[in-house]
Amino acid sequence: MSLSLSDVEVDSPATLTEALQLLGRSKYRVIAGGTDVLIRMRTGPIPNEKLLNIYQLDELRYIRSDGERLRIGSLTCIADIAASPEIRRFALPLAQAGDEFGSMQLTNKATIGGNLANASPSGDCIPPLYSLDAVLTVASAGGKREIPVKDFFRGYKKLDMRPEELITEISFRKMAGDEYGQYLRHTLRLGEAISVVGVSMCLKKGPTRDEYVAARIALGAVAPTVMRAPKSEEIVTQGTLDEARMRDASKAVLESISPITDVRGTGEYRREMAVNLTYRGLREIQARGRGGT
Amino acid sequence: MALKEYSFTLNGKPVVVRAPPAYDLLDTLRDVLGLTGTKNGCSEGECGACTVLMNGKAVHSCLTIMEQVRGADVVTIEGLASDPESQVLLRRFAEEGAVQCGYCTPGVVMASKALLMRNPMPSAEETKEALRGNLCRCTGYSKIVKAVMKGGT
Amino acid sequence: MSGTELKWVGKPIPRKDAHGKASGSVAFPTDMSIPGMLFAGVLRSPHPHALIKEIDPSKARALPGVAAVLTHEDIPGKNRYGAFIRDRPVLCDDKVRYVGDPVALVVATSQEEAEKALSLIEVNYEKLPAVTDPVQALTPGSPLVHPGGNICRKTRITFGDVEGAFSRAAVVVENTYRTGSQVHAYLEPEAGLGYLDDQKKLTLVVGGQSPYKDRAEICETLGLDESTVTVITPPVGGAFGGKDDVPVQLHLALAVLKTGKPVKLVWGRGESCVAGLKRHPAIVRMKTAAASDGTLLANQVEILFDKGAYAGLGPAVLDVAIENCNGPYRMPNVDIQATLAYTNNGVMSAFRGFGAPQVMFAMESQMDILAEKLGLDPLEFRLRNALKKGDEGAFRNRINSGVGIREAFEKARRHEVWRSRATEMKGDTPWTKRGVGVAGAIKGFTLGALPDKGSAKIQLLENGKFEVKVSTTEIGQGMTIAFAQIAAEALRCDLDDVTVVCGDTLRTPDTSVTSASRSTYLGGNAIIRAAEGMLGLLALSAAEHIGEPESNLQARSSAIVSSKSGRLVSYATLASKSKGLIESTGTFDVPRVAPIPGSLEIPHLFYMFACALAQVEVDTLTGSVKVKKLVLFPDAGRVINPQMFEGQVEGAAIQGLGYAIMEDAKIEEGILRTPSFATYLIPTIKDAPEIEVVAVGEPEESGPFGAKGVGEIGLVPIAPAITNAIYNATGARLFEIPATPERVYRALKGSGAPAGVNQELPPRTRSSA
């Protein structure tokens, strides 16, 4: 039986400033879309606390082009991210994560900020943000600061964020015309489900055929946090990205990951999937790179 | 349990309810307002039986707390059932044999309505994408897809 | 009832309740409420196996909103119930035997108060070592779930001489197959409402399957008189066998009797997954022999079912497994050992297919392996052995009823999906492989050798319309429209003039249980008899009215007409004269023979058959299986309503798909690792392939207008059809289901088939996947 939330108090500030002031004064659990928080509160792993409902803060809902960067308000819902022409064009892996994320009912409510704050290693938005070298803006009543996404996650569900802070914005440099990105994930059925493994990659094309001069490859659900795979990235840029190199680069992800065994799969299987998914992503990008799209 | 007052639009009419702030919209609809058309299948956003339209978008009412409903425009299956423009959709479900036990059906109809509002002639693929969050254990889905593809007009 | 064109039977008429269900206006048990009602909640064991040292409900009882907290001390009589073996406590007394075993019952003024009260009940448990698998259960020295030992049932049935057959055989194939547990996952969880009516009679309105059986169980267990209890089953949000073991009825009865107030009990989804019933997991060892010309010679079978903590309907499920483990084929020599072993792994009971899916996975895999060894086409091999009407079954039972399996296999053989089959066909990418697999299936319908009879009542209302009353329950299968069609046909009236009233011990006669795919057959026959009786009464009344002898009269288009003079009197006129007092009851007793020694219900006299073709695409990078198309050839006899029929077969097929590749109710150390829809994955609309249903078979002579049972057979052949297709696509054979992506991937690696980028084989661990 799920626990009732009838006794939980909720404050709903009208502005971000008010929200930060409240957070500065009292202890709250923040609720945005609610699609993670409510489930966890009902099944008991987190205690019933006062909720700070920020869902109505429309000032945090935006997708803005700012010169070379794209800026996304933290309360932008996943459906809007998947549908955004700018995100599809300049940050394809993030849009693809939005496509895969879940049902229409879920993506209409779940927010990118919430996906980050929930800090599940299998959160679909996170590997794309790693591969885009995204920067998070975190605010409190005392001001704001910027943190690269890879520094934001310190360990399993450990964030570089204090209780009085809120994620307000996610930004990253737009992918250029010679950059190719892809997000893939493996799930246990064709319909939506929590990812067993997720891979996001952004590769920068060089002038010659199958040449790639930069690569960012990030994997989710295979370690306490999302992990970049520097060895794989190095292999990709060291020579022509042919079949052998793609295989070597894929196998090299094993150096960066430490997947666990859980109800969705064994650690062994996840290692295989991390390699195979990386391979599939590289093949996809190789095909697009050759086609010039 | 402290109750607060929430004003919102329900099926086109203004309504005020008293409920605890973290009470979900689903329980409010069913237990406070007596509108039992919206169903509880899982309380965790996996089955879609609780689907309602909020500000024109399909959402899980089991994962929407009353504090988030203030001022919103909510449409439930009861609203759809009395909306002349939606009669065709309901009829299609009956005609195509897309209803067996019927417990998932209101949620499926609401999600279908959300799809048809933006895409009146969906393909089978588009229908499946839109309904991927609605579980049905009885029909095997074939007839649901047929009903929705015919359903807009 | 023959010769002339049927007016209603055989037509794809949309069910009448569809609009009400689609628009949310039909009330399910979870939707119902009574002013002033209380809310019940169940305290359940967190341990798979433990002694109960003490239960202290005092803090819970002290809460202002709590009307009652009940424990085993409040249970009259022996505190044990069960359909076959009365081994299950209403509320645990000596110990708990599975995670979810009920220990206390709370009744409070609100759901929240009930939850609070549950958290305040203190139970002192002494943990015991748990029995976590059926093989362990049978090992000497294993902890005991029940004092009588861990064997719930064990039997052996032999005919002929299997050893002799093995020595003569050209090929002998021996393998061990494993099948997993499956959760029913109906969208509406277990729920009900109870109250005392104005005569102080206990009335339960519950999501169940068999109101009379429920009432009998309630009265027997709680020491009540049947005349003081009414059970009503309104439309239920899915059942599939999971609501047949009184999940809420006993607790509701107790709560109402104790408090004197109306009480509602609704299970949460997690509660339903953990504490609810499941399909028996199985280990099936099969040694099958064939002659060089492809004739099946012998089958030596060892069936071990994980019973879980209580017997439930397990003894009958085991029987069905035994009866159907040879598939739809002639098998002259059999040696079948079957055991139900108690464990602390939840409770297993009825689930659509009822023991047949487990053994069909084994047998239909054996068939493909044998065919390959013999160098025969898999469908050709099946056709050579397929049963025909008049054949002797494995249990020396003559099958004199309809057998459509040959037609099913023949149609499958000619179907485009089968003809397009080739070995290791490539998919869209270098790492996807396509394949096609076939499987046959058999399962008896009705209760076989067990007594099975039921009644239907038809009443002529004052307005000239009819009410047909049956106690079978509308669990989604469309029983109400099918019965209306049968009744309207038999009564020679308009379909709109028939209303079906169902599932109510006060208003409807006992049509027995809604299970075993028997409702149409038994209920339909009872309705026809009631209709015949009704027409007789109407003729009698009409004879007086028209002034002609009954021999001149026939029923036609809602009137009794004289074939001599043409004079007629309408049903409506006869009805207004009789003021609603004309009613007729029809009873049908299912033909049966005595059970063979060692069995409860073998043989059935009537069988369902089906063939399934599965077209799959296997992703060798992940092991994911995409089922692209399913073609089902079910032997349905005469189809009463093609739309309902297709719906039943399609729905059953998708449940079979889930069973085959994704539904993995992992119970480890007695704990269910998949207690929600987030972890227990059932097929979504994206997982459902195109399904084609091709009805085969002859009308069943003894069936109502020739109809047979159809509810279950669509599920039974799916798993082996899919795993046979995976083999065709990749050369990797699955001996265990569900064939989850990890299992398939490991099977690919294990068979040496190319899979993945890493060519080194990872070590194989059976239990981890």
Describe this structure in words.
The complex is a heterotrimer of chains A (293), B (153) and C (769). By secondary structure, chain A is of the alpha+beta class. Chain A has twelve helices and 14 strands. In chain A, α10 (230-237) packs antiparallel against α11. Chain A is globular. Chain B folds into two domains: 4-76, Beta-grasp domain (Ubiquitin-like (UB roll), Roll); 80-149, [2Fe-2S]-binding domain (DNA polymerase, domain 1). Chain B has helices spanning 25-32, 77-81, 87-95, 105-118, 124-130, 142-150, and strands at 4-10, 13-19, 51-54, 57-60, 73-75. A five-stranded mixed beta sheet of chain B has the order 2-1-5-3-4, with helices on both faces. The mean pLDDT of chain B is 96. Chain C is α+β, with helices and mostly antiparallel strands. In chain C, the strands form eight sheets. A seven-stranded mixed beta sheet of chain C has the order 3-5-1-12-9-10-11, with helices on both faces. Chain C has a six-stranded mixed beta sheet with strand order 7-16-15-14-8-32, with helices on both faces. Mean pLDDT of chain C is 95; it is low at 761-769. At the B-C interface, α2, α3, α4, α5 and α6 of B face α1 and α17 of C.
Main β sheet profile of chain A = 5 strands, antiparallel
- Give the rounded overall mean pLDDT of chain A: 95
Question: How many DSSP-defined strands of chain A?
Answer: 14
Helical stretch tally of chain A: 12
Tell me the distance between the termini of chain C: 56 Å
Secondary structure elements and pairings:
The complex is a heterotrimer of chains A (293), B (153) and C (769).
Chain A: E1 10-11, H1 16-25, E2 29-31, H2 37-43, E3 51-53, E4 63-66, E5 69-73, H3 78-83, H4 85-90, H5 92-101, H6 104-107, H7 112-118, H8 126-131, E6 135-140, E7 143-148, H9 149-152, E8 153-155, E9 158-159, E10 166-173, E11 179-186, E12 197-205, E13 212-220, E14 227-228, H10 230-237, H11 243-251, H12 267-291
Parallel strand pairs in A: 1-3, 2-3
Antiparallel strand pairs in A: 4-5, 5-10, 6-7, 6-10, 8-9, 11-12, 12-13, 13-14
Chain B: E1 4-10, E2 13-19, H1 25-32, E3 51-54, E4 57-60, E5 73-75, H2 77-81, H3 87-95, H4 105-118, H5 124-130, H6 142-150
Parallel strand pairs in B: 1-5
Antiparallel strand pairs in B: 1-2, 3-4, 3-5
Helix pairs in contact in B: 3-6
Chain C: H1 18-22, E1 38-44, E2 50-56, H2 58-62, E3 66-70, E4 95-96, E5 102-108, H3 111-120, E6 122-127, H4 134-137, E7 151-159, H5 162-168, E8 171-179, E9 191-196, E10 202-206, H6 211-222, E11 229-232, H7 249-259, E12 263-266, H8 269-275, E13 277-278, E14 282-290, E15 296-308, H9 314-324, E16 333-342, E17 347-348, H10 356-374, H11 378-385, H12 405-414, H13 416-419, E18 425-426, E19 432-444, E20 453-460, E21 466-470, H14 479-491, E22 498-502, H15 519-546, E23 553-556, E24 559-562, E25 568-570, H16 571-578, E26 582-589, E27 607-619, E28 625-635, H17 642-661, E29 667-668, E30 671-672, E31 690-693, H18 718-730, E32 736-737, H19 741-751
Parallel strand pairs in C: 1-12, 8-32, 10-11, 13-17, 15-16, 21-22, 28-31
Antiparallel strand pairs in C: 1-5, 2-4, 2-6, 3-5, 7-16, 8-14, 9-10, 9-12, 14-15, 18-19, 19-27, 20-21, 20-26, 23-24, 24-25, 27-28, 29-30
